[in-house]
Amino acid sequence: MLHFSKLAAAATLAASLMAGSAGAQTVLKSSDTHPDGYPTVEAVEYFGELVKERTGGRYAVEVYHSAQLGEEKDTIEQVRSGVIELNRVSMAPFNGTVKESIVPALPYIFRSEEHMHKVMDGAVGDQIKTAFEGAGLVALAFYDAGSRSFYNKTKPINSVADMAGLKFRVIQSDIFVDMVAALGANATPMPYGEVYSSIETGVIDGAENNFPSYDTAKHFEVAKHYSLDQHTILPEVFVMNKAAFDKLTPGDQAIFKQAATDSVAKQRELWAAKDAESRKKVEAAGAQITTPDKQGFIDAMKPVYEKHVTDDVLKKMVADVQAVQ
């Protein structure tokens, strides 16, 4: 009888452990340099909600906004090494690691945001996603970041000639450094979080970014001249550590990919609203927005393309992007 009781107790304990295991939740960490409420932050939070719902609560996502886990350069290394599982980051810092990511970072490669959507939702986007696996990452989604334009504290920019000698902060990307040099200005790569104080103290004259970043980082307070040259319409990428992704069951992998896809539509909707809201806000605060003749800027990009589009793979990708209508 005692032996039966021991067996029953063991069985009860095993059942309890199995139930606990089935109900256990794996929490994944995701980083974003932008503040709470920013469209990319909300999109990843929405992704997390979908994953939690569709896996019955087995997975949850914690989004660390406002660069809580570090600036983008740091968090890229964290996600590649598996310290964190997820990261939303600009495409440009990957240009030296994922060759194919060079193409969407090229100045004036996209004619409009709609053109960018068609490209990134299609075969070229799939090609770029596949390339990220070589860097130990799974590219789950491409998010909007609008068009990037120059802004500075010194003067309005109406032509390439007005760029001469100005110092601009750029993303840590050789393409961006070369783009600024081709326009006769000086590029200073630095973390996003250092831009405000650097403009304020005169270390740099300005930077380049979209309206929501210009707004939420309060750069409009120290750099009033915003020139709508729209040199890049650079998508951002939401990545997952490949080893962590590979540990998921095929069913869960499908859930994660679909949740990421579903988050794209949400992010685009949020982005369009935020972009309009931010432009209105900075104009009301006194930002001076000018629209230069883009052709001079486009013509100046020839050496940038010659330097960075160096092999047949990239040349074909550029042609494929230009062919998308």
TrEMBL record:
The keyword Signal applies. GO terms for molecular function: carbohydrate binding. Keywords: Signal. InterPro entries: DctP_fam, TRAP_DctP, TRAP_DctP_sf. Residues 1-24 form the signal peptide. One of its GO terms (cellular component) is outer membrane-bounded periplasmic space. This is C4-dicarboxylate ABC transporter. It comes from Kumtagia ephedrae.
